[in-house]
Automatic annotation (TrEMBL):
<comment type="similarity">
    <text>Belongs to the tetrahydrofolate dehydrogenase/cyclohydrolase family.</text>
</comment>
<keyword id="KW-0658">Purine biosynthesis</keyword>
<comment type="subunit">
    <text>Homodimer.</text>
</comment>
<keyword id="KW-0511">Multifunctional enzyme</keyword>
<dbReference type="InterPro" id="IPR020867">
    <property type="entry name" value="THF_DH/CycHdrlase_CS"/>
</dbReference>
<keyword id="KW-0378">Hydrolase</keyword>
<keyword id="KW-0560">Oxidoreductase</keyword>
<keyword id="KW-0028">Amino-acid biosynthesis</keyword>
<dbReference type="InterPro" id="IPR020631">
    <property type="entry name" value="THF_DH/CycHdrlase_NAD-bd_dom"/>
</dbReference>
<feature type="binding site">
    <location>
        <begin position="167"/>
        <end position="169"/>
    </location>
    <ligand>
        <name>NADP(+)</name>
    </ligand>
</feature>
<comment type="function">
    <text>Catalyzes the oxidation of 5,10-methylenetetrahydrofolate to 5,10-methenyltetrahydrofolate and then the hydrolysis of 5,10-methenyltetrahydrofolate to 10-formyltetrahydrofolate.</text>
</comment>
<dbReference type="InterPro" id="IPR020630">
    <property type="entry name" value="THF_DH/CycHdrlase_cat_dom"/>
</dbReference>
<feature type="binding site">
    <location>
        <position position="233"/>
    </location>
    <ligand>
        <name>NADP(+)</name>
    </ligand>
</feature>
<protein>
    <recommendedName>
        <fullName>Bifunctional protein FolD</fullName>
        <ecNumber>1.5.1.5</ecNumber>
        <ecNumber>3.5.4.9</ecNumber>
    </recommendedName>
</protein>
<keyword id="KW-0554">One-carbon metabolism</keyword>
<keyword id="KW-0368">Histidine biosynthesis</keyword>
<feature type="domain" description="Tetrahydrofolate dehydrogenase/cyclohydrolase NAD(P)-binding">
    <location>
        <begin position="141"/>
        <end position="284"/>
    </location>
</feature>
Amino acid sequence: MDTTRILDGKALAKTVQSRLRSQIEAALPQRNRPPGLAVIRVGDDPASAVYVRNKERACERVGIASFGQHFPATATAAEISAKIQELNDDERVDGILLQLPLPAHLDAVALLLQLDPDKDADGLHPINLGRLTRGEAGLRSCTPAGVMEVLKAYNIDPSGKNAVVVGRSILVGKPMALMLLEANATVTVAHSRTQNLADVVAAADIIVAAVGRPEMITADMVKPGAVVIDVGINRVGDGAGGYKLVGDVAFEEVFEKAAWITPVPGGIGPMTVAMLLKNTVEAYLR
Ligand code: NDP
């Protein structure tokens, strides 16, 4: 009999959102305004359009005011900078998010640096990544923070466990490794140059896959009883002319061996949005 359990990020994200709604309602009488999140989107990347719409809807559900700004793909760095400055100074705005990817002529790192670190809702400003590295309070990057929130909600304590993070991006893998380290896991970070990835992953009590390669983590790589967190979101053909979303983990077969596993969709994706809202509310309450 398999005993694997699903880590239900979608349900947990709803719980987090209702907690945030209550916090906002409690704070409103003193603050006289709701929290505000400004999303800057540049160009017409279709996936970004969907993500931004989802974020704005989630804001509406919890009572966060949205200050969206959509620039054409031809927008200059000076125009985006001016907007960032305006939002940094706008007292109605607690969180600012620069939706990535940006068109190729814009330098995302240079623009991110201009955000007020205390309004950096995505937690990607070097100051916030530095605070994470030092173990200091600060706005945490949303996807790895979402993973930690899932582990906490299901009473999975990383302390003393072997955690293997596959992927080392600044968006997911690196901050994920630091957060697991902060939670006292023994952390290994694997990447495209890692030798014998299967052996490295097989030693893990907790696996976090953040690669972007459909179903690359297979059952033979997973220790029985491991906790498997699938961050990957990959669009693949559904065999009927359409497409479906799959993670970096071969869900069906890994389900047979893991103790806990996140589904795709419905796992870490909704938690990422919930953590964006949480960062905004934290900045508002501070
Ligand atoms: P990146 O492309 O920035 O990073 C991918 C990482 O995977 C790199 O560190 C790369 O190594 C590593 N990698 C590539 N191929 C291999 C391989 N064969 N074996 C081991 N490691 C490999 O991606 P992101 O971190 O931005 O995103 C990863 C995935 O997570 C994507 O599917 C993305 O869509 C998804 N994602 C999901 C989110 C959510 O809300 N659930 C949020 C953000 C991302 P190297 O550094 O050596 O190149």
